[in-house]
């Protein structure tokens, strides 16, 4: 026998609460305050989350294909003029 959960009358008639959106922009009085807040945010993250954020920034700057490329197997010797 499978029991169905009871529906309360408050749940049926209530409207969902709107989600609050946290501000993503903050104002600082100077560069030092901004730098301190930025460092505090990074230090508050778990180490694995820091690595995920760094990987995201790396992909943003260099693209996702950079890790797929390999180094050349044979190094090239550059010719320099004699002194």
Offer a quick outline of the entry:
The protein is mainly α. Helix content is 42%, strand content 0%.
Mean pLDDT: 79
Strand residue content: under 5%
Shape: elongated
Radius of gyration: 27 Å
Low-confidence stretches: none
| Counted beta strands | 0
Largest β-sheet summary: none
Describe what this molecule looks like in 3D.
The protein has three helices and no strands. The protein is mainly α and 83 residues long. The protein has a domain at 30-65. The longest helix has 16 residues, at 47-62. The model has no long low-confidence stretch (mean pLDDT 79).
Annotate the secondary structure layout:
Blueprint: H1 9-13, H2 31-44, H3 47-62
List keywords for this structure.
83 residues; mainly alpha; 42% helix; elongated
């Amino acid at each position: 026998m499978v029991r169905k959960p009871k529906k309360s009358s408050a749940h049926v008639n209530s409207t969902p609460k709107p989600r609050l959106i946290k501000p993503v922009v903050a104002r600082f009085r100077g560069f030092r305050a901004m730098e301190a807040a930025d460092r505090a945010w990074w230090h508050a993250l778990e180490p694995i989350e820091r690595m995920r954020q760094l990987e995201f920034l790396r992909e943003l700057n260099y693209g996702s294909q950079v890790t797929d490329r390999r180094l050349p197997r044979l190094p090239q010797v550059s010719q320099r003029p004699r002194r």
